[in-house]
Amino acid sequence: MFLAVPVHSFMDVAALELHAALLMAQGKSADADAAFGKATEAEFALGYREPPYYIRPVSETRGDSLMRAHRYGDAKKAYQAALVERPNSGFPLYGIAQADVAAGDQAAASADFANLITAWKNADAALPQVAAARVWAGQHSAGAVAAGQ
After folding, report:
1. How far apart are CA 145 and CA 149, in angstroms?
2. What is the C-alpha separation between 101 and 112, in angstroms, rounded?
3. What is the pLDDT of residues 33-65, one digit of tens each?
């Protein structure tokens, strides 16, 4: 009986998050924004626990959905919100970098990818996020930029 409440609450968060993502995919941005807000509230209502009941912050899913909707500034804010909950997590750091790339802000993207590389310095180099960050850093280093690459 004790576990029924957290499991039920976890499912509420998942249902709200899924509903919000579907609304965004349908182009119903205002409704999706409201639904993501409710999902975030439900996630925070779960409280702090290690490991967390809800393994991936709703803000990350919100960021992913906003990226697909080409709302790059809003996506960056969503990923930054995920970082507040889980500082130095590579997933929102990667999302922030991707948002800056999509928005055409190469200088910010370079700093973002450098942050990701630093945060995940001991991560598996084959992780797609780490590999992409290293490729970006190699292509956008001061020398590469000066050479016109």
Report:
1. 6
2. 10
3. 999 999 999 998 888 777 777 788 999 999 999
